[in-house]
Amino acid sequence: MEELAKEVSSLSAEEGEETSKQNGQIWCLKRIGKDSGWLQLFENTEVTIGRGLNVTHQILSVSCPLMISRNHCMFKQREHGQWTVTDNESLNGVWVNGTRISPRKPHVLQQGDLVRFGVPLDGNPVEFEYVLLHSSLDKIKDFLSKTAGAEVKALTSRPKKSKRKFGTDETEPNISKAKLYRVSNTDKSHGLPCPPATLPDQAGPSEPSGRFTQCSDSSQHLTSLKRYNENLKALKERMGATQKRAAELEGQEASSLEQRQEMEALQEQMKLLRGELNSQQELARQRMEILERTVCEEERRLAMERIQQKEDGLKKQLEEALKEHRKVIEELKHEREGFQEVLQAKDKELKVTKEEKERARAQKEEVVSQMTEVLENELQCIICSELFIEAVTLSCAHSFCQHCIADWRRRRDECPICRQPIVSQARSLVLDNCIDRMVENLSTVMRERRTALISQRKGERSA
């Protein structure tokens, strides 16, 4: 009994030392808006973050699986204790306090800095946003996430448990479950058959991630976990009964040979139960890790299926949009042909109108030339060879400019054309009005010349 008490006290001491080591100050990334998934930053090592399997912390985006790169970034502590973050040329970048850092260049961090992985989508907040903290492990250990490296190492290289003989340093392999029931003299009604200890990873070569049957594996793992829990409860009850019986025997003052033998049997049974409990806990933990990994793979597969469905929907929408675009192009082509026909008809009309205008202008020019010819031949004064200015008609019916005939009659009083005596003369308003109307259609040079001539004769008359 004293040896049992010493062993229990040594185990308690070891647990106390381990707990005291874990109560120190650690660095971590606290996830904003979440009470889980906090990332611990291990000192004296490079902490990598990404969606790949060979990173320290694996984070997977639910809304967009490609938001996080395989090896997204790396955290490293310098000699003086200051942490830096380096962007490993990720697709959506690493943002510190709202500013994206340069790839492949370490960025110095301060306690309380906001570190963001990726960008927001559709107006939603960023999925992975953390704040750098330095706090006690006891306060934050319940929120920390498991590291991917530790999980893989635990599954691939798990050391085998060995049993130590009571009071000696020799070890022996795990005793079979049947021996437990042979040695124990207590009630066996709580004992349940343990599930096979073979892990799914050891059964044979693994199938591709998209081909294994997730539903059957998950249900099998859940059934195994339930059976492990029942066995653990039964073992705990038996350990409690054994400890109670050992306490009763210890309380008795006189111990007979049978009691000593029973005490030794109880000690052996306690040792076997403790080993079996550790073994069952180890198997349950392995099953839990496998179940978590299976759930993670299933979530990843479902996310990829959703992405594929979205891509198929976008392809269909793109095809429909292309069809509509082709229809619009055909309609525009037909309308263009109609517009070209209308433009050709308008061009023909304009051509005809232009020809008609050319003919009208030619006719007008011909009329003007004829009028000019008439003016020059019929309405021109024979004395000054200009168009009549204040036309005067003599008694012989010949017409002259008033200025010209007055100047002529000072020398001779006879008609310059027919040589008949001038009996009378009269103003011809009809000729003046006709000449004025015709002069308006003459060229500018002729009109200016006539105006200057009229002004000159009025000046001479006033003088």
Automatic annotation (TrEMBL):
The protein's annotated pathway: Protein modification; protein ubiquitination
Chain intervals for the UniProt region annotation (Disordered): 186-220
Ranges of residues in domain FHA: 47-101
Catalytic activity: S-ubiquitinyl-[E2 ubiquitin-conjugating enzyme]-L-cysteine + [acceptor protein]-L-lysine = [E2 ubiquitin-conjugating enzyme]-L-cysteine + N(6)-ubiquitinyl-[acceptor protein]-L-lysine
InterPro entries with a match to the protein in the record: FHA_dom, RNF8, SMAD_FHA_dom_sf, Znf_RING, Znf_RING/FYVE/PHD, Znf_RING_CS
Biased composition (Polar residues): 211-220
Entry superkingdom: Eukaryota
GO molecular function: chromatin binding; histone binding; ubiquitin binding; ubiquitin protein ligase activity; zinc ion binding
A Pfam family reported for this protein in Swiss-Prot or TrEMBL: FHA
UniProt keyword list: Chromatin regulator, DNA damage, DNA repair, Metal-binding, Nucleus, Transferase, Ubl conjugation pathway, Zinc, Zinc-finger
GO annotations of cellular component type: cytosol; nucleus; site of double-strand break; ubiquitin ligase complex
SMART domains to which the protein is assigned, alphabetical: FHA (SM00240), RING (SM00184)
GO biological process annotation, one example: protein K48-linked ubiquitination
Ranges for domain RING-type: 381-419
Signal peptide: none
PANTHER family referenced in this protein's UniProt entry, alphabetically: E3 UBIQUITIN-PROTEIN LIGASE RNF8
Similarity remark: Belongs to the RNF8 family.
Descriptive protein name: E3 ubiquitin-protein ligase CHFR
Taxon lineage: Eukaryota, Metazoa, Chordata, Craniata, Vertebrata
Gene: rnf8
